[in-house]
């Protein structure tokens, strides 16, 4: 009997969709609402970004744009960098990651563990400066930028995998999909799939309030708005404060046993606010990553 064993990249995706048991409370549950969390932290490198990372590399190979041994460059706020570092290790690439210096030490250490090289940029420049530097390095011939912000293989993988998984695992009952917005790949790809199944499904994006710095959630200046973003696929944008997102991260851990990252908690805040004004709704939000990536930030009590 021949046994075919999966490789690491074969187990990316097919993440659990679980029902939260306490956060809604009896009143909102009595209205027929269900709050579901898509556990993307269960991916091998620990986040939703595992999907586009392997997709962008594999499809660039198929087109002949890159080949093993090449140098890949990417600006990242953390999770994409970790996922790309893993994917590059799997498929044999040198990975150079450009990252603002104020992001959590756990993320930087994890990227290095996968063999990636890090370039830290000033906090004041934010992700915009990091993206500009990546493009500059590509122009100088120092490597190939995959560009998660403009690469159609980012939302494509969510259209092909994340969206269908949500539709299947809810039995087609999903009424609201909530996602933090960073590169916008997740919300763009999932929206496209779910809207094709049922145009009435509400797609809601979580963005940070003015002055809030929530890792993984961005409100981009117009000049830096991701090219992959399709605003027609998003029905509502909801602003989340940093304090509310951090508080929700602690609540998820203590009340649900769900150790989630800050952007996931922000999306949960939005989903919970929607649940307070609807009935008979099946609300799905993306748990982008795990809380252990944020221990050094002080969000969780020591």
From TrEMBL:
<dbReference type="GO" id="GO:0006535">
    <property type="term" value="P:cysteine biosynthetic process from serine"/>
</dbReference>
<feature type="modified residue" description="N6-(pyridoxal phosphate)lysine">
    <location>
        <position position="49"/>
    </location>
</feature>
<keyword id="KW-0198">Cysteine biosynthesis</keyword>
<keyword id="KW-0663">Pyridoxal phosphate</keyword>
<feature type="binding site">
    <location>
        <position position="263"/>
    </location>
    <ligand>
        <name>pyridoxal 5'-phosphate</name>
    </ligand>
</feature>
<feature type="binding site">
    <location>
        <begin position="182"/>
        <end position="186"/>
    </location>
    <ligand>
        <name>pyridoxal 5'-phosphate</name>
    </ligand>
</feature>
<dbReference type="InterPro" id="IPR005856">
    <property type="entry name" value="Cys_synth"/>
</dbReference>
<comment type="pathway">
    <text>Amino-acid biosynthesis; L-cysteine biosynthesis; L-cysteine from L-serine: step 2/2.</text>
</comment>
<comment type="similarity">
    <text>Belongs to the cysteine synthase/cystathionine beta-synthase family.</text>
</comment>
<dbReference type="Pfam" id="PF00291">
    <property type="entry name" value="PALP"/>
</dbReference>
<dbReference type="InterPro" id="IPR001926">
    <property type="entry name" value="TrpB-like_PALP"/>
</dbReference>
<keyword id="KW-0808">Transferase</keyword>
<dbReference type="InterPro" id="IPR001216">
    <property type="entry name" value="P-phosphate_BS"/>
</dbReference>
<protein>
    <recommendedName>
        <fullName>Cysteine synthase</fullName>
        <ecNumber>2.5.1.47</ecNumber>
    </recommendedName>
</protein>
<dbReference type="InterPro" id="IPR005858">
    <property type="entry name" value="CysM"/>
</dbReference>
<keyword id="KW-0028">Amino-acid biosynthesis</keyword>
<feature type="binding site">
    <location>
        <position position="79"/>
    </location>
    <ligand>
        <name>pyridoxal 5'-phosphate</name>
    </ligand>
</feature>
<feature type="domain" description="Tryptophan synthase beta chain-like PALP">
    <location>
        <begin position="9"/>
        <end position="289"/>
    </location>
</feature>
<dbReference type="InterPro" id="IPR036052">
    <property type="entry name" value="TrpB-like_PALP_sf"/>
</dbReference>
<dbReference type="InterPro" id="IPR050214">
    <property type="entry name" value="Cys_Synth/Cystath_Beta-Synth"/>
</dbReference>
<dbReference type="GO" id="GO:0004124">
    <property type="term" value="F:cysteine synthase activity"/>
</dbReference>
